[in-house]
Every structure is written in structure tokens, then in C-alpha cells.
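User: I'm curious whether this sequence folds into something compact or stays loose and floppy. Could you predict its structure so I can see for myself?
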Amino acid sequence: MSIVVSVLSATLFLACAVLIFAPAPVAATEEMRFFRIGTASTAGNYFPVGTIVANAISSPPGSPACTDGGPCGVPGLIAIAQATGGAVDNLRLLHNETIDAALVPADLAYWAFTGTGFYRNDDPFTDLRAMTAIYAEAVHLVVRADAGIVRFEDLRGRTVSVGERGSGMSVDARLILGAYGLDNDQIHTSQLRPDQAADRLIGNEIDALFVIGGTPFGAILDLANQTDIRLLEITGPPAARLTAANSFFTELIIPDDVYPDVPATTTLGLAALLVTRANIDEAMVTAITAALWHPRNLKLFEGHPATRGRFTADRALEGISIPLHAGADRFYRRTESPGPPRSLSSPAPKGSDSRLPPIDTSDDPPSPIIVGPDNRMP
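Assistant: Here's the prediction. I'll summarize afterward.
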């Protein structure tokens, strides 16, 4: 679903967005509001990326105006990146209104929203809403370079780690293996954490492992520095059927030499989404979305390898698998050419155009958001 957008279009999107949605100066009497963002453990990508998001959207009371060199966030907002147990924990905390937003992969978001897959035994989380895609997480299927495994058929009779029991990754791994005609009768599965699986791959105790995450993924990079590895391509008709049937999968290319001596590899990707609840104030979400796309804040995302060069205007809606929040939808509508509005009752159609053309400035800009005690989260 990769969409190429000219640099000119993306630049115009950002410039116009700032003019229309730039935060108003903070009033002297304005009170602060805290906005909690669920991430994951401090060892992964979600925590540092969530910290970048929090820094981008924050503008504490009394801060200088963005135009005077102050923060270009939401006036009066103090966002906090909160370490959590990960995406599953984030969705639970978000559903319980313990946090206000979270980073989650597109597959878990879709399953939670629809009550399927990983959440097939739970009620649908129908109030779950997306704000933006942050970056793409790659599906890695890793084997030793000397194992004689070059295609999916070579996995027959082998032992494959599909991720920890009960994890979203294990669900995705089994979906992918099934698409290539490999079930439990044809392969042996092991359910290990990525670091455990990497150690066992080195020790010839398993033959392949699945990992889903931003690139470079630490455990895979460590593995590649200890032994020669190969990434199997996830492509062809089985991959096409998977992406057609599952709105959260996209095509993704892991570039050349992300891992030592590993060439560019076509695989599947999952967007890491910033999500929230439908009941979060619409004007607040509009302002937060605008702050994320401020040109000065975009520079913050260049400081982390998972988002460097990937948090871009042409990918803002790429891979989103659940409805947009009304406030985010309001922002993106103002950046799109006239056309049929996107429905908030269902996810974006598979294959829909995710580009952000130049902003239509014919309407008046939204009123500035006023943050006060009535807007505090309980």
C-alpha cells in the first residue's frame, strides 16, 4: 500500500497546517492539563518514541509562544510518556480511562476494535480511535544463513519460534505461516521471547524466528553481529491475499544493510499507531494532531532510528486499521482536497489513498483550544 508523494506536496501540507492550526498564545490564567500516553518498557522503541510524542505536543502554562522560540505544542498541555507492560497493557489502560492515549500496533488495534483475533473472547472496544500512524514495524522472519532455508517451503519439518504464548505476534506469525500452507502438522512451533529465540537460533535449537518491530530491531541486530543471518521475503500471492484480507498488514521493504550483510527484503509491515478514545475532547485532539505535524516538532522524530525519515506527511494515514478520532479527522480533512468524507463508523477501506494533498484553506480555522479544569482527566 506504499504511496509516493512529492516532497513539494508534503512540504505544502506542513506549512499550511501550521498556518491553520498553529496553537494560540497561552492565556495568563490558563491552567495546565496532563495527558498520559501509554508506551511500553524503557528497553523498546515505544517508550522513547512516546517521549518524543509527549515533547512535541506539550506546551506548559507560561511557556513562550511557538513563534518566539517556545514549544509548538498545545497551550497548557503537559504530556507524559508512561512506561507500561506494552501494547496489550496500553489498550487495557486506555479502555479503563487510566491513560489518555497509547502506542499500539495496527493489528492489536484492529482486533480490539472488532473483537476478533487476539481479542476474539472480549467485547469490541468500539470507542478506540486513531490519531496518526507513527512509523512502520516490520515482520522479520529470520534464519541462519547456512541453514539451507531460502523460501517458506524450506520450513517444512523445521522448528519456528512464533513469539510468546498469547502475544499478538504469535497470532500474526500463524496467519502468515497458514497463508503459505504451513500449519502445525508441517512445522514445529516454539513460543519464545525475541532474545530467547535469538539465542536458540545461534545454538541450532530452532531453525527460524518471527519478530515484529521497528528496524533495526535490537535482538536481531545483536544476532546478526554474532552469526550470519538471512531474512525470508514475505511476498507473492500468499502475502497479497494476507494484505487483502487483513487491513492492518501493508507491504514493507527492510532496506539494504539495516542488518550486516543482509540485502533489502520485501516483507509485511504493521503501523505503530497513536490511539485514543472517542470521548477525548475533539478540539484537544485536533490541536494535538496539528502539533505533531508542526515542522519544528518533526525534527524531534529525526532523533530516533525507528522514526527517522518515516514520520512523514505522506505516511500519516498509512496502515491505519481503525476509525480516526473526530478531532484527527477534522485536521486531516482540512489538509485534503475536496472529496467524499471518510466515515468514522468503519476503518479506512483497504488500499485507500493515504496521501495528504495541499490544504484547502477556504474555511475558517478552528477556534483555539482553551484548556482548563473542566478538561482534566479523572
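Summary: The radius of gyration is 21 Å. Confidence is low (pLDDT under 50) at residues 1-16, 22-29, 337-378.
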